[in-house]
Amino acid sequence: MGDLVLTAILGPQRIRWRGSRPLNAAQMAFAGQHPIEFKPGSLGPDLPTRSLRVSPQHRFLLNGDCLVPARGLVNLPKVRVMKGCRQVTYHHILLDRHQVIFAEGVATESLMPGRTFLARCTISDRLDIMRLSGADPAPALRCLTVAETRRCLRDHDGALQASG
Questions:
Q1: Which residue(s) pair with 103 in the sheet?
Q2: Rounded to whole angstroms, how far apart are CA atoms 50 and 42?
Q3: What is the pTM of this model?
Q4: Alpha-carbon distance 141 to 156, whole Å?
């Protein structure tokens, strides 16, 4: 906590809270939380720069305006659900606001502590997050509807084909 993270809009921002959530194979299967792996080049030329593994609901910023969950990208080449994974630990960082940050060169998101996330937290983590961000923090970037996600994926797929 206290380290700086580069955001797309506000520049360097301090990490206010960090947390992690370990899951074993049974927990991943029950909750549908197998990691999704993005191989280099799966999201554009040299993006990500190295293999990137995220939770299914973690979102990427595509075309500069579409926040798309990883689970919506599993049909792209070089993207796979890691069903054989026996254990994973998901790490989270909270900034003053939900922000676009970068992971392996890919525009992605910082933690948005919505109701679903808070419901899965330990009581201690939930209290810490709510103390820092309020009981019902509003996202800085809105979530896409299903129709918007499909449109965004079509646009992104066309951009990948044109560049490849």
A1: 106
A2: 10
A3: 0.76
A4: 19
